[in-house]
Design a protein that fits this description.
heterodimer; A: 189 residues; alpha+beta; 2 domains; two-stranded antiparallel ribbon; 7 strands; 38% helix; 22% strand; B: 203 residues; Chemotaxis protein chec; 7 helices
């Protein structure tokens, strides 16, 4: 009995508090659960989506191209979809402060079989909003590119070494004087 | 435990089939033609592994790790040295990657996941065993630390099917290892299944 209570408490926590989107489907990919994160970010309530096929949700929330991953999950495989290759699984806007960088929330997702008593009864999808992290990566890269630009217009060799004496950065003039490609010297002692 | 030439050949063939599927998925994902070769299959005990890999993989390595359970259970890993992992990520994404940051880790997890799912899925189908997969993780540790984490668990002797492979992308070759770690009971079952495949299904 106590075990059962804890299982219910965990489910309630996933449903109401979890910082990731979670939804489950049956074997026909009809939605069986939809947590609060999904409600908040899609503006679709549980009653709006319950029993509907994931590819028939309003606003074409999930593109048909992801069908093969759900088929793999129904065959027992766990699938990871990184934002680098897929950008997003569910088509929803980002938080307003990131709208100038992306028109869709950037996501990393996992799709897994939902197993009960050794049998696959459906799928579970977990979605993480990685937009803020990606924006920070872009801003960091922009700053790095700017620094590289200043280094490259310098007329002298500029090298940055790590604590072991390995080259971490070399400017354009340095490559010209040494007569080598940047990739040939990076990480060399 | 020593595999016969036929058993090694059978594993290489099954992995070849799996890698064909994985290469097609990776090519579709990245928009670049990707080839995967399986040059060599060997079996070691887990204690022999550090010396088997010394001089080939040293220092810090990236390991996409997935646990599988069922009639045959164990660990499956795609291991690359950091330089190889960085180069692979750069080639797959078309962006210059200098270190294994969070986004690069996600790329390697997805690539590892595609490869390991293809291999274990093909083993599952061809050997007619049922396997359940865990969510994959990426470890970035010293090789010995990664090997030590595989020793955790029961006292059963563990064996490693070590499959040397290489990715060919845009005229570049990147070497890596696929490791399937099995306890003695699972390896025995695995070999029985391989033997039952028969040469006619593979040749």
């Amino acid at each position: 009995m106590e075990n059962f209570v804890y299982k219910v408490a965990i489910l309630e926590w996933v449903n109401n508090t979890f910082k990731f989107g979670v939804f489950t489907t049956d074997k026909n990919l009809n939605i069986t659960s939809w947590n609060k994160w999904m409600v908040v970010h899609t503006n679709l309530s549980l009653s709006d989506v319950l029993g509907k096929n994931i590819f028939d949700l309003s606003g074409n929330l999930i593109d048909q191209k992801f069908l093969r991953f759900y088929e793999q999950a129904l065959n027992g495989q766990v699938i990871v979809l990184s934002h680098v290759f897929h950008k997003y699984l569910i088509s929803i806007p980002p938080e307003p402060q990131f709208a100038k960088y992306f028109d869709k929330m950037q996501q990393t997702a996992q799709i897994a079989p939902l197993v009960h008593e050794g049998k696959i009864i459906g799928t579970i999808t977990i979605i993480e909003d990685v937009t803020e992290r990606i924006v920070k990566e872009i801003l960091l890269k922009n700053e790095k590119d700017l620094a590289q630009h200043y280094l490259d217009i310098a007329g002298v060799i500029i090298l940055i070494l790590d604590e072991n004496g390995n080259i971490k950065l070399i400017n354009k003039r340095g490559c010209e004087i040494l007569g080598c490609d940047k990739q040939q010297v990076i990480r060399k002692n | 435990m020593i595999l016969t030439d036929f058993q090694k050949y059978a594993i290489a063939e099954v992995v070849n089939i799996a890698f064909g599927r994985a290469a097609a998925s990776l090519s579709e994902l990245t928009g670049s033609r990707i080839l995967l070769k399986v040059p060599k299959v060997e079996v070691y005990t887990i204690d022999q592994l550090p010396s088997a890999l010394s001089g080939i993989l040293n220092g810090e390595v990236c390991a996409a790790h997935q646990i599988f359970t069922g009639q045959v259970s164990g660990d499956a890993l795609l291991i690359l040295d950091v330089k190889g992992a960085t180069a692979l990520t750069s080639l797959l994404t078309g962006e210059e990657v200098e270190s294994i940051g969070t986004s690069a880790k996600e790329v390697l997890i997805e690539v590892g996941n595609i490869l390991l799912n293809a291999c274990l899925g093909t083993f599952e189908n061809m050997l007619q065993v049922q396997i359940t997969f865990s969510v994959p993780h990426l470890h970035l540790h010293q090789l010995n630390h990664t090997i030590n984490t595989l020793r955790i668990g029961n006292e059963e002797i563990k064996y490693v099917i070590l499959i040397a492979t290489s990715f060919t992308i845009k005229d570049s070759n990147i070497g890596g290892y696929l490791m399937i770690v099995l306890g003695v009971v699972s390896l025995d079952k695995f070999i029985q299944c391989l033997n039952s495949l028969g040469k006619d299904r593979l040749l």
